[in-house]
Write the C-alpha cells for this entry.
Amino acid sequence: MLTTENLNHAERLKSESLRALADTGGDRSERLIRSAAGIELDASKQRLDVAALDALIGAARDAGIEEKRDLLLSGGIVNGTENRPALHMAYRHGANIPGSPEAELVDRTQAQTRAFAEAVRSGAFQPSGKPITRVVNIGIGGSDLGPRLIADALADHVESGPELRFVASLDPSDLKHAVAGCDPEAVLFIIASKSFSTQETLMSGEAARDWLAGQIGADKAGDHFAAASAAPDKAKAFGIDPERVFDFPDWVGGRYSVWSAVGLSLEIGLGPEVFAAFRDGAQAMDRHFADAPLEQNLPILKGLIDVWNRVALNYPSRCVAAYSARLGKLADYFQQLEMESLGKSVTTSGQPGQTPGGALVWGGSGTEIQHSFFQWLHQGKDIVPVDFIGIGRHFASADPRERALAANMAAQGAALLDGRQVDPADEPILAAHKSMPGGRPSATLILDDLTPATLGALIALQEHKVFVESVMYGINPFDQWGVELGKVLTKGILDGEITEYDASTKQLLARTGLIGG
Ligand code: F6P
C-alpha cells in the first residue's frame, strides 16, 4: 500500500517540470541511476525526487518487503491460494536453499534435461536412424512465450544445433508452418505443459502425432516425442516414453518456468552451455535482489517506480520499448509475466484491493514502433510511462546502424520528457498541431550487451520487480484463477451444453453453425 506521505509527494511533484527534475543532477541522479548484474537502470526521467523516493522505500519497508522477499527466496508459502512456495529461482540456484529437498529435485531434473539435450545435439538420439534437425515446442502461455523469446533473443549465440520452431495456436496453420520443410524422420516434438491438460496444447500435440504417423507410421511416431510437465503421469498416459518425460515441481509457476524443463527446447537448440549461462545471469540478479540494500536494489527500485506510476500518478499502462531486433518478443513475455501475475483485484486476505493492481503492459521493438504508435505516445491525451531497453555496446559501436539505434532510443526519451513548444508566430493553428506537451516519464534499462547472462538477469529483474509490486498491492502474484471460467465455457460450447449461456452468445453460435440453430 502507498501511504498518505507517498500521495502527498505525488501531488507536489505533479506540478513540477519533469525537465527541471531531470536537470537536478547530484544526489538525485546518484539515487535514480543504479547498476547490477550487467544492467543499468536509469530512472532519472521519472517524476520523482529524493524525498519522494525515500518515502517510497519507507512504504516498502512498512509493507514488509524485506521479510517477504526472504520468505520468497527461502521457499516459504507465498502462493496462499494454492498453498505453494514459488521457487523458480531454485533453477538458478539463486535461492538460499542449497541442500534442501528442492535443490536435490532441481539438480536431478537439470541433469536429465542436459543429458537429453546433449544426446539430441550429438546425434546419439536418432529415433528413426537420423539425427534430429528440427525441434518443435508445442505449448502456450508460459510454456511458449519464454522459450520463444529466449530462442529469438539468443539466436546470435548459436553455433550449431537443430532448428527451433514453436506452436501455440489451435489454428492448424501454426503446426503446418512449424513442420514445413522438415524431414519427418528427423523431427522432435516437445509437448511443454505444466498441467498437461491445456486444451490447445493437447489438441496440437495429438495433431502433430497424427501428422507424423501419416509420414513415418504410427509405430514410429511416438519415438519422436518428449514432454516437459509438472504432471508427468499425464504425459506418460498421452503415450510419451517415460524416459523422455522431464518433470518439474508444481511450485514453478507457468510464467516463471522457462528455467525448468520447459526450457528443454532451448537447451537443445542453443546448447546446454548457453542455457546454463542464461540461468547464471539470473542467479546474479537473484543474489543482488537478496543482498543489495533497498536503495540500491534494482528489482526494488523498478517495482516501486512502477507502483508509483500506476497508483500515485495514476497511469494505467506501461509501454515496453526494446531497441534490439532480438528483443522483439520481450513485450509479449513481460505482458504475460506482469498481467497474469498482477491483474488481480482481491488481496491475499480475500478483501477487495484498495488500489489497482499492475498496469496494462504493451510495447514492441524500436525503432519500428516510432513509426507506429509513438505519435500517440507523444501527442495523445494519455500519459504512458515507457521502459526503454537498450544495448550498451550499441552506443559506441563501429556500426553506424547500432549507434543510430541507440541515438533514437535516447532521443525518444528526451522528446517524451521535454516535448516541444512551437512558436505560434504567424501560424498559431499549425504551431498548436506541431507542439508536443512533454512531461512524459520513462525509464531506461541498458544491458552491457545482449548475452545469455544479461538476458537472464533482465528476466530475473522483471520477475522480482513483479513480486515487489505484488507486496505493495497486497496481492498473490503466483495464481491465475481468472483464466478458469473461459476454459469451462469453451468446454460447454464444444459439448453443446449452453442453455444457461446468454442470448447473444447462443445466437452467435447458432448463426455461425458452431451449435445447431
Ligand atoms: O493462461 C493460463 C495458463 O495456466 C498460464 O498460466 C500457463 O502458462 C498456460 O496457461 C499454459 O499452461 P500449461 O503449461 O499447464 O499448459
